[in-house]
Amino acid sequence: MPNIKPIHTDADYENALELMGELWDAEEGTEAHDQLELLGILVDKYEEQRFPIAAPDPVAAVLFYMEQNGIERAELGRVLGSRSRASEFINRKAGLSLRQIRILHANWNIPADILIQPVEQTG
């Protein structure tokens, strides 16, 4: 069985991915499957550190949700309290208030940690 070790470099990472490919079809309950699981944990940890993913922009998240669910901008206006408030948000003129974050989270189930991110404001 291969020697599994921490992943510190891109070369270690590539080797771990290759070994995972070799172990991919290992049957559950076998030593090979245990090694595959350990490698998965190590690769995941390395990827989180090496290739961090920033939280999505709140405007982009809301627009994506609306597009995926067929929601018109007028509905966003109703949720946020007014069409002008929704327009300010969508056009990056203003961020969301805590009350609006709570409403969007409760009604549309958009994670609050995304909605609370600062909006890159224009003008």
Automatic annotation (TrEMBL):
Recorded GO MF terms: core promoter sequence-specific DNA binding
GO process terms (BP): regulation of DNA-templated transcription
Protein name (database record): Transcriptional regulator
Organism of this sequence: Thalassospira profundimaris
